[in-house]
Design goal:
eight-stranded mixed sheet, Jelly Rolls, alpha+beta, 10 helices, about 400 residues, about 35% helix
Length: about 400
């Protein structure tokens, strides 16, 4: 014989816990329960409860044994127990399956893992150079720009920048004359050469030939564009040297950046794009194809000249100043040897190198057509490496 305990049979602390679980007061629970037992509509039972609120019912339930249940209640109970048994059986089967899978994995590890050699290789589409200049160098560059600004030629006619919303908005040629200008160019040349040699393992050097400054104020921007270069392979770059307070005081959390809710988080940022993709594409293991970059004073970016980028406008007092540059890339004959087959190199050697005068200045670049593209070559680079056809 099964005995059922009613609410009234519970100790007081268990009654409190039960009512908290139900989310009801004692009066609400007893009203609902008694209405269900008597078949009285809930609304009518609630009305009775309000009328009798002063004396909460403390009656015993109408049944205490299994034999007191109606046929419908017995059926409902059996169905509930049957569902519970099915759930328990399925859960046990799932656990058993998991244990078998775990055992199978452990067996495979013991048998094969010590005989496997796995590696995962990255296949990059390009490289980005990032160089942080110290504040004293940035200050020296800014001082040089301020000193030469009044007489610096405008670059606006050659550039796409829409810097026009303030009387001080402009794009100016950077003066590479004088001690500071020459030192800046020398450092930029070294950075460009290190980028192509270390990033692309290329036996080449980079030479800076265009440097200019961007003086942007509220509302100014640069539309999507890329840079032209003098050689088929070229580099571009930029560095921030001054930022307005509205950009340096942005509350930007590390990691993901969301532009929802008109936050203005990307005001004044640079947007770099190297393909067309979507969030769905990255979920399907395609690489990302864009990046929003928060400017930082003294930080330089170097990238292939074909990479498109744009600068978003900011809104607030102050100047967003950057210095931009382009590099020409001069390849060595050693780099051509890496590209060519032995037969191609012998033909090139016979036509362009064999019989050259000993008095030829090997540091003077010369032009050749490779795969239909004009390429700049210098003989004096990486001369310690020789091709077998030269012997």
């Amino acid at each position: 014989m099964v005995t059922f305990h009613t609410y009234e049979d519970l100790p007081e602390n268990e009654q409190v816990a039960f009512l908290e679980k139900q989310g009801m007061t004692e009066n609400e629970y007893l009203t609902k329960r008694n209405a269900n037992l008597k078949g009285v509509p809930i609304a009518e039972a609630k009305a009775d409860a309000v009328r009798n609120a002063g004396t909460p019912p403390k009656q015993k339930t109408t049944f205490s044994k299994l034999s007191d249940l109606s046929p419908e209640e017995l059926k409902e109970r059996e169905e509930r127990f049957a569902k519970g048994e099915v759930f328990s059986a399925n859960r046990d089967k799932h656990r058993e399956k998991q244990m078998l899978q775990k055992k199978s994995i452990e067996t495979a590890k013991e048998k094969y893992m010590d005989k496997l050699d796995m590696s995962i290789d990255a296949v990059p589409s390009h490289y980005i150079g990032k160089i942080q200049f110290s504040q004293d160098i940035v200050d020296e560059i800014n001082a040089h720009v301020d000193e030469t600004r009044e007489n610096a030629p405008s670059m606006a006619q050659e550039l796409v920048g829409q810097l026009k919303n303030d009387e001080k908005s402009c794009q100016l040629e950077f003066d590479i004359g004088g001690a500071v200008g020459e030192q800046v160019k020398t450092v930029f040349d070294a950075i460009g050469s290190a980028y192509v040699q270390q990033g692309y393992n290329r036996k080449s050097v980079a030479e800076t030939y265009d440097i200019w400054t961007n003086h942007a104020y509220a509302g100014d921007y640069n539309p999507l564009h890329d840079h032209g270069t003098r050689t088929s392979a070229g580099l571009s770059g930029f560095m921030w040297t001054k930022l307005p307070d509205c950009m340096t005081q942005q509350d930007v959390s590390q990691g993901k950046h969301f532009f929802n809710d008109a936050s203005g988080i990307a005001d004044g940022w640079t947007h770099m794009i190297w393909g067309l993709g979507s969030r769905r594409d990255t979920h399907r293991f395609y690489p990302k194809t864009e990046e929003y970059i928060q400017p930082k004073v003294g930080l330089m970016y170097v990238f292939p000249q074909w990479m498109k980028h744009q600068v978003l406008p900011f809104f607030g007092p102050g100047e967003r100043r950057s210095i931009a540059m382009n590099w020409a890339v001069h390849d060595s004959e050693a780099e051509l040897r890496n590209m060519f087959t032995p037969a191609e190199w012998k033909t090139f050697y016979d036509e362009n190198i064999l019989g050259k005068s000993a008095e030829t200045d090997e540091s003077t670049p010369y032009k050749v057509i490779i795969d239909g593209v004009e390429t700049i070559i210098r003989r004096d680079l990486f001369k310690e490496e020789k091709h077998p056809s030269e012997d």
